[in-house]
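Record type: monomer structure entry
Structure origin: computed from sequence
Chain ID: A
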Amino acid sequence: MKRVSIKEINRLAFPAIIAGIAEPVIGLADTAIIGNFPVDTEASLAAVGLGSSFFLTMLWIMAQTKSAISAIISKYYGSDRIDEVKTLVPQSIALNVAIGLITFAVTSFFAVEIFSLYNAEDKVLEYSVSYYSIRSIGYPFTLATFAIFGIFRGVQNTLWAMWISISGAGLNIILDIILVYGVEGYVEPMGVEGAAYATLSAQMLMFLLALGTMYRKTAFRLRPWFPRHPELANLFGMSANLAVRTISLNVAFFAANAFATLYGNQFIAAHSIAIQIWLFSSFLLDGYANAGNAISGRLLGGKRWHALNNLSKDLVKISLFISVGLSLCYFALYPFLGSFFTVDKSVSSIFDDIFWIVIIMQPVNAIAFTYDGIFKGLGETNFLRNVLMISTFFAFLPLVTLFHFFDWKLYGIWAAFGGWMIVRSVLPIRYFAEKYGSRVP
């Protein structure tokens, strides 16, 4: 077959979309509920925005074994050698748990210093540290869950991760309402800390469900631990490349948050709402990228070059269609979004002024994310690392610094994000055409 059917792509993509948006939905829920909390609204909203942003920053850096294990397992799956990676699975999960524990210990210990670097002070600093110190306990659980999700994707199943993610997001929203606002006579309002405990509970539930599903639905187990699998070095190398890539990505997010905080609490609060919606959109668009991740690895294992090229074209078309629909929905909801996320009218006004930039970025994002997923499946982690380093250090940082000089404030931050995503889209298109387009007979 020279083409993977759209039905098969959708079978993997739809569940991956739902599973992928679980973490940003958790962030959006925290943002919306805290944004309507009547005590210290601006400071609380800014703190949750900063705490969520840094948590996701570290999570993305450390969670790269998810894509790496998916690429390796899908390649073995495509060449009918899946039994050869049974020992790799427990080793990759153990690696993620260890990384999670170290990340929690180090970052929670230095939480005050970390959020001070974001220019947070007074109540924003206090609430940021409080929120993050609780939520960061979830690192080992979330990283282990992501590794298991990568295993599921490698065997061409994204449905299991979808149901697990829905369960986690649902629990988070319920506990958010109970713990943040309280229940009269039963639970005292906990504010920012309540949002953090709700998220931690959701992370723990998702880990338990993922582990149980792996035991029930697959032949993989947590043992044997030894001997060391020969692919472990490759897994570590790919993960390291993707981690450097993610560090470069998050340098951009850190700089954006630092500049927004510098402009004042109202600006970082508005920026926090915009970035949560941007992240939600990114994970939504990433569903087809995840399908590309799973399928491209399988096609690589079977050396099906024609099907691989057709896959890239089909995924780009579908992602562009979704991104345009998403943009139209955001335009329709434009008058209501700011007031939905916060009762502070000055914050919602600033958000309204810049959100149009987030909207028009969606089609460009779609192209970048699609090729990200395909190249992860192909194991092209060196290239992905280089693209993010170039786009961050030679596009985003110069632009955001220049726009700060002209005092564009949030306009400058989001215009710089636009330039960043254009570079991330153009370079992969050229590279794929040169390397894999030439292999089609």
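Annotation 1: Residues 265-301 form the longest helix (37 residues).
Annotation 2: DSSP finds 17 helices and no strands in the chain.
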